[in-house]
Records
---
Amino acid sequence: MIECIKPDWPAPHNVQAMATTRLYPGGISEGNYINFNLGIYSGDSPAAVSANRDKLAEDISGQPLWLHQVHGRSVIDAGEHFEDIQADGCAAFAPNQVCTVLAADCLPVLLCDRQGSCVAAVHAGWRGLHAGILQQAVMKMRVPSQSLLAWLGPAISQQHYAVDEDFRERFVADNADYAAAFARLSRQWHANLYDIARIQLDAAGVAGIYGGGFCTFADSQHFYSYRRDGQTGRQACLIWMR
């Protein structure tokens, strides 16, 4: 059993990063939300979510910066953060600002530079990817993109992410390279969010791209999945500098 995931990437020593799973210890959510749901708008008991969030903050000795995610392309500066701000990405340039995003099939992306001077967390669902949120995050970080590392956290895999023709055309009409991120499986198009993200990060100049070997839909033991369960919880990806 995996309680949390530590990214396997060559991040600087001062950069801390992790992804929670639903098996994270000390969670008190029940039913569809068992065990460690962190999504305040998921329909779970607010008291349970609050207790889970407090437990996480205690464990990392820091306060995660919770965003009100809206599937857009806004990336905020953690130094200008206020409670419940509407955004889908957060970048930090000072220590102990814990950039945090939630997901349950959408793709969480963590970023840092090789010098350990900045970090970012991005919630990259298909709408955010299509709107260019990863490019926005790269620009927000104020360093050459070639110095950045990216880690792709737990998301739905291509095998389980069926989409229609209009969905595919949204991407391919913008850039023919996206055709490689779609495949016909069982007479239906399936999208690969990981590959779409890799294409965008590569185009933005990010050379070090890691992660991407998860499936939230297939792994019900460890991950919440909206496509699988409908009303369900959220896991978190966090990154910060010591």
Note: Residues 15-156+206-241 form a domain with the CNF1/YfiH-like putative cysteine hydrolases fold (CATH 3.60.140.10).
---
Amino acid sequence: MHRLAFVFIAACTVFSAGAAEPTSKTSAVWPTKSLKIMVGFPAGTSPDLVARTLAEPLSKALGQPVIVENKPGAGGNIAADIVAKATDQHTIGVMINGNLTIAKLLNPKTPFDPAKDLAPISLIGTAPLVLAAPAHTSSNAPSQTLADFLTTARLAGNTWSYGSPGVGTVGHIGMELLKSRTGISAVHVPYPGYPQVVTAMLGGQIQLSMLPPGLATIQSRAGKVRTLGVTSAGRSSLVPEVPSLTEAGVRDFQLEIWNGVAGPATLPRAVVDRLSTLISEIARSPEVRQKLFQQGWQVAGTSAEGLAKRMQADYGVMGRVIAQQGIKAE
């Protein structure tokens, strides 16, 4: 594990061993045709909305069409693999945590290695997950505090279950991290997606889950679930009324979902730098920032180095959980 982490960190620091050196010629003539943004999820999903939000202003900035192409499957890894293998210098992708960090750890047969085959461009947006429980279950706790609820969960042992949108997702890994930090033993039940997780929670089949903030807020306001804590280091502007798990007594807990833009490792550094500058400026612009916030994202809009650092940090945290719990993608 330490060797893998070292390789990943070294690779992210330089973006990729195969990335070409910047040249004035490259920056002067690029782009020479339309730019394609690959998305590994269907139209209307969060990564797709992020890509389409960026596409129009990026097209204006580049003076070329920017086309969003959806290639769903394998948790976004099909599209990520297309980006990793692209050689036309005009293909990039909007990707989620897993595609950019732990894809190869979860499944050694993944046809690309994020550390070696992808060049970070910009971290676009982040969001915590919200630890939630059915309202009727949480009311059985001796009081309304998170600490008391976790005590109830520990006493329940493996008679309680938690749901996630699949093996190896951040919701799954986040719950396993919480289990390791708190001593609860809830059993994992994977579902096809968050709608099925919520249905199971409301039906009493599961007692816990980590939900995206928008979904958690809707269910909380309807009185169907109780929001217990967010997984970010501090409170989130997306759900400011919910305390962080750290604030509530779970030490050093920080794990978020996020999306970023990356290209193939062979993308010339001059192109990476130009895209990083433009995309980060677009993401932080007031109009786009507001659109992304409405989609449930806290805007980051970082440099390529900023995304590389986030990839390193998440690889370390999630990689340890994967190794300790023996998690493998199905």
Note: The chain is about 45% helix and 20% strand.
---
Amino acid sequence: MNDKMKVAVMLGVGKMGFVERDIPKPQCGEVLVKIENVGMCGSDLHYYEHGAIGDYVVHPPFVLGHECGGTVVEVGENVTHLKVGDKVALEPGKTCGHCEFCKTGRYNLCPDVVFFATPPVDGVFQEYVAHEADLCFKLPDNMDTMEGALIEPLAVGFHAARQGGARLGQTAVVMGAGCIGLVTMMALKAMGLSTVYVVDIMEKRLAKAKELGATAVINGSECDAVKAVMELTGGKGVDLAIETAGTEITTRQTVHMTKKGATIVLVGYSKSGEITMPLSLALDKELTFKTVFRYRHIYPLAIEAVANGKVNLKGIVTNIYSLDDVQNAMDESVHNKMDIVKAVIQVTK
């Protein structure tokens, strides 16, 4: 194996380039993974377009990308559950294991997490990465590493569904048909909900939602989404609403389209960070609000759902780019959000 690898780096706002770096060596408890596919997340695009997300500021050269799948090519000491040649999905966040959140199983809330592509931690737009073996989940033979890369966003969808207490017999609505909205809809279906509506304002995304199993889709730019949901439910409203768009209007609409005693799960981040809600109505309905930050204990469940055919992960992918074409991939994803639902960088084959 060559001791050098190609790494795509963000050189500044709207500018990508390449550097050559040493291939890392797996330490005790780690494996070296040849990265094959990396999903392009909204956070990658936000860093590329604006140079920061809140207090997390990019200092170039910086490596983007955290949704990844690949093949184990070297195994460090004390690793027994993986071997060279295993296909794996990488969970991108290494937590401390000692804080109150880790000890109580809520490790996604660990304040000392080291997470790919969250400044100052580099991501995985590169050919190889050494990663904690316990965070590398082996894929079954009927899954490939593109699906492995997309387990990360699917984990968010399953966590949202779990936070909402999703169960057989419920009706649900998902606000937003971007990547997270689509995987949330599929997670709900996999958990037994037969009736899941999806609301968006982009026709291509709504068509994709329908293709992937949405019961009905609603274009919020062409009709009153609340009225449409109420008509679909015979005036009752839904049991569960999951908001992934991160806008004030869609968040407010969830309060109006849910029945009394329903649950609303907030997943999408608003640009302003603040949203005005009709709280009097929420109180009258005794609604339960839950929120989502990444995920926890989800990867095995998500992998099983894909392997068993309950979730069509590849169905969300609309564009595939090579690592060499990363500049174009970023630019098109930023400027053509109407057509690109989910893009994947194919690092190596």
Note: The chain has a mean pLDDT of 97.
---
Amino acid sequence: MNRKKRKAVLDDGCMPELVSGADFDGIFEIPVIKKPDRIIIPRAIVPFSQKEKVSPSRDIALGFHEMDPEFAEVLISPSDYTASFAKYGAVITPDCSLYRCAPLAVQVTNVYRNRAIGYYYQSKGLYVIPQIRWGSDETYTTKVFPEKLAFLGAPTHSIVAIGTYGCIQHRDDKYHFKAGLEAMLETLEPDIVLVYGSMPESVFGDYLHTTRFVQYDDWTTERHGGGS
């Protein structure tokens, strides 16, 4: 096994140096990503693993809507990428998986890592858009925790990103995605929601009047000239 990737699992926890100077939110002290001074809506979202295929541009956002191993290097050494990420108009925070079957401790940790790395890049002057991801209903309700974990550390009345690619394939997936989406809209009241992947009426139809959604085809669909 690659020792560098193994370090992402062990090492010294979640690199507390990343959040030096941060504000924290909630009982889990999730690092806060602050609301930007202005809203920037990217023309396209390029996945981290495909960044070499597209020239960086100020109208493109770099995203992480892919399997976690594809961006493990960023989780391990985020400082190594600050300069290259600064060439993009925006960076969407790492989309660390929140599988519903995962222990809650893992889901909490991945929300933390998402916000910690986002805060770090924001502190370095990059334009950061929080990727909002929820897992089991414990993360988007107050069923277990006094706060909705999935939304801690994200700004209200701002811009956020979500992803549907690979997340709404089955009935249970659609149920939890829609329930989490409703909770996110109620909690964060975002002005803009970037959606990476399809926006089926059955999932989004009830909420199209609540905010502005901006949809982006996933990389494979976009490269093959598909449409939503």
Note: The two ends are 39 Å apart (CA to CA).
